[in-house]
Design goal:
Length: 438
């Protein structure tokens, strides 16, 4: 906690990769920030010293609404008890979610029970990741082609996401399908108004009892304006904000002192020992990154190899190679589209995520690698829960959207492991090589 006894900023990441991106933005702004793997108790908070921001890494993106409600009620109560002014529900920058999985309407309804400020901003873009929201429509780049921007319902990957396909670009309609009706919106033209007029516009929309207000984002200057709104209104009562790490960017941009400084951390050097990478993402971007590597022994994991029961991937060959000093990249096989029907594919994904988590635990306990990479949001969420750790702090950037963190654990063999989390769509083509070289 801070010296005043209250943490200013709290966030819950709906998957681990996104949570670490928010952690990185806050830490680079100079805020003392820790990301906890579960709501921390008083003893844990007292042990870590003063903090300006606290995050809780979760897996709500992959949960049904009933499970989400229970998880977020606990997280929200924890952060509210610490006196945070902003409760940031961190979603993927592509807003991929569905009525039955990662339902954002469920998250808002649950968290508003403890964060009752009528102002609920939904920040619609993250320019640093080439995500843009204009007139309520979401656009995003795909892979390494930064010049091709796709409307999200025509995005080559996100429109075909196996669990939460983005088939609606209008985020108001996307949220309405999940149960959040009558979302208001403020488009980019309003940001050129005097701040008092923009503030009055927001009041008018709140007066119409809109459950949330969607804000366009086209550039970083837009985030600075939104940050001023969030900061000012959070002084009246603690508020809930929804969006990608751009919410944290907006918060920091509103503080002139934070906006003008970039907290320096020691650069990430070459790995001291073999590196283990576990890739559960099935995205084309991750597949291209795997193909581009030349410094790893690659092991393909077949998610259907134990279709008759829970799959269990053997750690023995990976452990042997790591003990010999070799870098190892284990990745799940991408199933043929016609191999199974949709319910079978979903069940297979769940079993695979659990098997990847068990594999990571087996490898870390047996081979003790000191630098690890995990690709895939769901894989990250499950895999880290298999480790007996309690938190993560920012270590260093690796590439846009991918951060290396330091693992915090009571067990000495786990404490201090450097671990990279990468979403399926994130990172440049050589990111896995950089994890070795720094």
């Amino acid at each position: 906690m801070s010296a005043s006894g209250a943490v200013q900023y709290g966030f819950y990441g709906d998957d681990f990769t996104g949570a670490t991106d928010t952690l990185a933005h806050l830490a680079r702004a100079g805020l003392r920030t820790l990301l906890f793997l579960a709501p921390p108790d008083r003893a844990r908070l007292d042990s870590v010293g003063p903090l300006d921001a606290i995050g809780i890494a979760g897996a709500a993106r992959a949960m049904p609404p009933s499970a989400m409600a229970g998880e977020l009620a606990r997280a929200g109560a924890c952060l509210a008890s610490l006196g945070v002014r902003v409760m940031h529900y961190k979603v993927c920058s592509t807003f991929d979610s569905a009525p039955e999985a990662g339902n954002i309407a469920t998250a808002i309804a649950t968290l508003r029970r403890v964060f009752t400020n009528p102002f609920v901003p939904v920040v619609g873009g993250q320019p640093g990741l080439l995500r843009y929201c204009v007139f309520g429509q979401l656009f995003a780049a795909a892979g390494s082609d930064t010049h091709a921007i796709h409307r999200i319902d025509r995005h080559p990957t996100m429109s075909r996401h196996p669990v939460t396909p983005m088939n609606e670009a209008d985020l108001r309609l996307h949220l309405e399908r999940q149960g959040l009706r009558d979302v208001a919106s403020v488009d980019w033209r309003a940001y050129s108004l005097p701040f008092a007029k923009l503030d009055a516009m927001v009041d008018a929309k709140i007066a119409l009892r809109s459950p949330a207000i969607l804000f366009d984002v086209l550039c970083d200057d837009d985030l600075r304006t939104l940050g001023k709104l969030i900061e000012a209104r959070s002084r009246r009562a603690p508020l809930l904000a929804v969006g990608a790490s751009s919410v944290a960017q907006a918060w920091c941009a509103a503080d002139a002192a934070l906006a003008q400084r970039e907290h320096q951390t020691p650069p990430l050097g070459r790995a001291q020992g073999p590196v283990f990478v576990l890739a559960g993402s099935l995205s084309p971007t991750t597949a291209a990154q795997i193909e581009a590597t030349h410094s790893y022994w690659k092991i393909e994991l077949d998610p259907l190899e134990s279709a008759g029961g829970p799959p269990r991937f053997s750690a023995a060959p990976i452990v042997d190679m790591l003990r010999e000093g070799r870098n190892v990249l284990a990745f799940t096989r991408r199933p043929a589209a016609s191999a199974t029907n949709a319910p079978q594919q979903e069940a297979s994904r769940a079993r695979t995520a659990e098997a990847c988590a068990a594999l990571l635990g087996d490898v870390v306990r047996a081979a003790s690698p000191r630098r690890i990479g995990i690709a895939g949001g769901d894989t990250s969420s499950h895999a880290v829960q298999a480790l007996d750790a309690w938190g993560l702090s920012y270590r260093a950037p690796l590439t846009t959207g991918a951060t290396v963190c330091r693992l915090h654990a009571d067990e000495p063999s786990l404490d201090g492991i450097e671990i990279m989390f990468k979403g399926g769509q994130m990172g440049e083509i050589d990111i896995l090589e950089r994890l070795i070289t720094g």
